[in-house]
## 1
Amino acid sequence: MDNIYFITILVAFIAAPLARAENEVGGSIFYFGNKTATLSCNITSGGSTPVTWYFQNTSLKETGDRYTMTGTPSTPVLEIKKPTRDDAGQYTANFGTTANCTVNYTAAPLVLDMVKSMSVEKDDDLDIVCDIRGYPPAEVVWQRNGVNLTESALIQLRDYNGHINAQLYIEDVQYSDEGTYTCIAYSHLFNSSSTKSLVVRVKNPIAWVWPLIGIIVEIVLLGIVIFICAKLDKRRAIRADFNDTNQSVGQGHGGARKHGGDKHD
Ligand SMILES: *[C@@H]1O[C@H](CO)[C@@H](O)[C@H](O)[C@H]1NC(C)=O
Ligand SMILES: *[C@@H]1O[C@H](CO)[C@@H](O)[C@H](O)[C@H]1NC(C)=O
Ligand SMILES: *[C@@H]1O[C@H](CO)[C@@H](O)[C@H](O)[C@H]1NC(C)=O
Ligand SMILES: *[C@@H]1O[C@H](CO)[C@@H](O)[C@H](O)[C@H]1NC(C)=O
Ligand SMILES: *[C@@H]1O[C@H](CO)[C@@H](O)[C@H](O)[C@H]1NC(C)=O
Ligand SMILES: *[C@@H]1O[C@H](CO)[C@@H](O)[C@H](O)[C@H]1NC(C)=O
Ligand SMILES: *[C@@H]1O[C@H](CO)[C@@H](O)[C@H](O)[C@H]1NC(C)=O
């Protein structure tokens, strides 16, 4: 009886460490130009089952030469060939049902290029996204013409791809919202930031009306000119007719006057 009791305690004692949360041996840091990244994980006991590595809820396959899985059953190693900043994130080694351990592959933040400028119609909404790579997630500070923007009834800041406040949303854009918008993505872990700017212009929503009015005015003026010309032409034609009919009469007069003039000389 006593023996069975003892064995039960012993089994419980041995089994307990199997379920313990395990630790990360050393997170790897991404640097631009690295040829490989080595992530490893350390489990204090167990490790008989082959591990499966996960990244963003997807199990990683040893296909191609992108990922290589080495190490020992208790200290599995994941090697990533030609890593990019997109590979940064949290990796999990799953030991079946026994344990999981996570490794952070960290990278300083980088804001991807934005369009240089954009136009938005007055009273429309402005929606700008700061597309950031890096891990852990960065925290964004937005500036307009160098002045920090804070959240208000009209200005909303939303998380984007896990990065805090990376999306700026302004409702009912006014002319005063025009300016240079800057996204500053800051990482506490790296104590470094990445910055990109774009120029926002606010257009008059009925701006298209003015050229149309111009065209209409031009057509009307043209119509008036054509009408006047036609009227003048008609009048000239009538006068020409009148002159033609008067010419014979006038000529007689003229001849008479000439005669008179000649007399004077
Ligand atoms: C990545 O690059 C950095 C700086 O160039 C270097 O210190 C580090 O050892 C490299 N890591 C790997 C795994 O190659
Ligand atoms: C695994 O972690 C334990 C406890 O932190 C440490 O004593 C041991 O040296 C580590 N083993 C390896 C292979 O890193
Ligand atoms: C992974 O799955 C969890 C739970 O289903 C979810 O909350 C999380 O957003 C997922 N992560 C990614 C990167 O898809
Ligand atoms: C390990 O992670 C997976 C997926 O998140 C989860 O289903 C499982 O319960 C975890 N196992 C342990 C022992 O924590
Ligand atoms: C890995 O990153 C997560 C999320 O930022 C953090 O909670 C966790 O403490 C990190 N792990 C280590 C070992 O630094
Ligand atoms: C802008 O915000 C950043 C981060 O919160 C802060 O460090 C900085 O002092 C602020 N600048 C001004 C002028 O308020
Ligand atoms: C962060 O970097 C700035 C300079 O870039 C430095 O003045 C400051 O002391 C650093 N802060 C920490 C906590 O390392």
## 2
Amino acid sequence: MISLIAFIVALLILVLPLLLQYLSERQSWNNGKCPACGEPWECFDMTSQGDLGYKCKNGHFMWMSYNFEKPHSENKLYKKES
Ligand SMILES: [Zn+2]
């Protein structure tokens, strides 16, 4: 029983940062608009890790590791078929 609890705690420690990162990135993405000024995000760069850089007209920018722009085709999180 103790090992099961330890397993769940370890799982939470591993998953929680990813979940928090996902939620904060989703909040920053704001359905494709800059949360600070409401201008649409434009992708300007992609890192070798596949992180996407977005900027708006007013010079705000952010980096995302999830692709919210194409949730049904390219995002591995949403891919149901194996
Ligand atoms: Zn902005």
